[in-house]
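Appendix B. Extra example for self-study. Work through it before the problem class; the solution is given directly after the inputs so you can check yourself.
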Amino acid sequence: MINAPDFPILSFITFFPLVGILVICFLKDDHHDLIRWVAFLTAVISFIFSVPLYFRFDPNTWNMQFVEYIPWVREFGISYHLGIDGISLFLVLLTTFLSALAILSTWTAVTKQVKGYMISLLFLEVGMLGVFCALDFFLFYVFWEVMLIPMYFIIGIWGGARRIYAAVKFFIYTMSGSVLMLIAILFLYFMHYRETGEYTFNILTYQTLQLPVNVQFWLFLAFFLAFAIKVPMFPFHTWLPDAHVEAPTAGSVILAGVLLKMGTYGFLRFSLPIFPQATISFVPLILALSVIGIVYGALVSIAQDDIKKLVAYSSVSHLGYCMLGMFALNIEGLKGSIIQMINHGLSTGALFLIVGMLYERRHTRLISEYGGIMKVMPVFATIFLLVAFSSMGVPGLNGFIGELLILIGAFKANVWFAAVATLGLVFGAVYLLWMYKRVMYGEITKTENKFLKDMTRRELAYTLPIILFIFWIGFYPKPFLDKLDTSVKHLLERVCDQKAVSTEGQKIAALNPNYTLQNRALSGRE
Amino acid sequence: MPTINLSAVYPEIVIALFALIVLLVQAFAGTRAKNYFGYISLIGVVTAIFIVVRSAPFDFKSVEYSFNGLWVVDNYCRFFKLIFLLGTGLTILISIKYVENEGVQHGEYFALILFATLGMMVMASGTELMTLFMGLELMSISLYALAGYTRVRMVSNESALKYFLLGSFATGFLLYGMALLYGATGTTNLHGISEFLAKTHMRNPMLIFGMALLVIGFGFKIAAVPFHMWAPDVYQGAPSPITAFMSAGPKAAAFAAFVRVFVDALPSLQSEWVALIWIMAVLTMTVGNVIALVQDNIKRMLAYSSIAHAGYILVAFLSAGELGISSILYYMLAYTFMNIGAFAVITVLGGKGEEKVNISDYNGLGYRHPVAAIAMSLFLFSLAGIPPTAGFMGKFYIFSAAIKEGYLGLAIIGVINSVVSVYYYLRVTVAMYMKEPSTIGESPSLVFSPACIIAILISACGVLRMGIFPSEYIAIAKQSFLALQ
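Solution. Structure tokens for the complete assembly:
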């Protein structure tokens, strides 16, 4: 049934968690295990149904696939329009994958208000999937905002000591970015109307608009603010450590694994193709901010004494790589950036899960409280090490592929920025290994640590699938990279075509021959 | 021979009739009937809604003048009348239990609500300055009395007195403005004024001054900054259901008249009033939102929020094209649902004597009364403009109108303001879900009367429906705009 061509599979995946919510609503508050199982199974079913997307996805076209289109608010030209391409395919899969694992990880971590927690997590999944599938600006914006509510509650109700501060900060920060995006969307909407006489919020038609350069500049800026806060790029990152540290484990996993990707996805889906000329003129600024983020995030991570904070700041650094690769504006950089999004979702998600395991055992996240854990938790130690390696980009694991591609791209675009970014790799190894050393090696100094239990079967159940992908992408990334190819090339063509038109682009092209080379290579292939 | 077309005023007749019936029942049956006043009024409201809806289909432009052109029935006024009647109906549903708790189960309470509604309906239909003024006075005087209805509470008295004094002052301004307008143009008929101005291109000080006084008068009624001083005290002191009532219906009525006078009669003066309203809109949004941030009393907080919402509507008013005007209609309807819904919860939670109206009284509500807390969160998220609610759709509508008409700066100020507002709406959800109850053990069980539950349900459905399937409401709102053309 689900393979039938007219089956609305994206809607099904996106809204299936609502079914779970409905069921949970009718369960008694104190049937905690039942509620957990329903939530988990819902997420698993969502994931299972999203797997065929991968196999049925046709990598030979950049057109949107699995498209659904229903007019929604005719008066405004708003429609219910879903579809995915190579860029969003993996983000959808990552979302369903991590959501299921995140729910499994909360079995013993959350014991109060389980019902509300599971409802929030499932609701969050709906919002996230909607963001990645939406092809209508209005719909996109609705999902983008809706998702704030469950996350706000997850941080605020089930979070740590400063949870209220963190939750409100998260909400207001994100919203202040996105309202300006709304203005920009509306502005585009009326521009489009004036040019074509048609009211529509269809993202794909905007991607073919030829906007004046100065208009592009301002609109790019408005979108930039929304996405840069979400990514988060330096200097808009200050909400992230608070939100990450205070959120419960599952919240952090989703936040790092998926929510941050909405920012980078936003750049790929909107900023680059709709404002190509502005994109090119913003390249130096964004490259600079990304590199600052990479180095700054890594340095701050080194200084942390709280493991979770360390992982949180490492996200700033990793997302800096994603942005660096993306704004290198060449095929390696872009593909690396997308793969790195997935990698970051997997490895940082896993790191948060690992921190959660430690926290559940000892109820502290201070590095100084641990030491010598390897002796009592050998299995845990192995997995922790693998994940840390993956996060720092050790060859053979997924992180390497992403960072390598990004750095190749970056070197092609600008040697200096790339050189500085490489420093981030070194620092990355420093903070992760040093933390690992202090937590796992040495003698057991605290008596409480002497009798810690090793990983339970449930804990293995939600870490091993991640480890599997960490190896898979590391050893054989082809199945992942192949699906990206056409969509990424199409995106680049859109940006680079504009480059030839714009004088701004010519300037850059004159400074940097790689751009024109790239351009020629692409047109040659056509 | 004046044309008297009674069918044009059937809804008004019904409302007046039921107000009188309530009074008569009170006079003859006395306290024996005290439980039924609310329901009797409700029947009147529902009948009136039925008549308004059924009098003509909404999907074509019908404009019917009667009573020598001082009364009009068009889609614009019908839409507004539906908003008023809806607000009234919801208010009555909330009030039934409230008046019983407070021991003020008198027929006058409901009769006054109905008379106020009648006043609003006259304001929406009037095409004559005098008709508008009569409607306004009928509405205002009923409200003055209602604000002080729980007379054993000091704050209620204070509220009524303040409202009365400041309100009559503002009415004076309004009336003076109308007089000057009449003096300048020689007519009180809105069309007459607009024709006269179009013909003569008059720009004399008397006319401009009259227009400015009208802005002040209406500005007071919609609680726009700097004429908002009364609102927080009045809203805080008035009985909660009446606060709910005041923030929805009368505000909508004032906007209905404001728009009709300025768009119908004074379009030729647009260049004069645009700058004025622009400043007023910015001030109203900003001052309302910023002061609301520091309020601890939830009624007072919502009073400031209501000021801010008037500011958003002023943005729409400025962008008075098809989108602008229809967005006012849409927004007022959405606002009626969400604000009255929020006040319904506040009324129930306030308890006897309205003692629990501080935000800290909401601590832990999410665990004591999960359903009430969910409903309250929904209304607050809607007020904050988070999708998929009516409040989001309304703001979207208003800001798209503003951008279309080129008020980009205003739209940006508006959305930034709505971010500011998120903070204080979130404070309530923080209290409900993220804080422990302040007084443990002493959590009086709330009594949700069936009527109140129905009111909350209707509001919640309205908020969600207008947010998720806004199409038909937008279509009707757009049709209603055509009536003004």
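Self-check: Residues 154-185 of chain B form the longest helix (32 residues). If your reasoning did not lead you there, revisit section 3.
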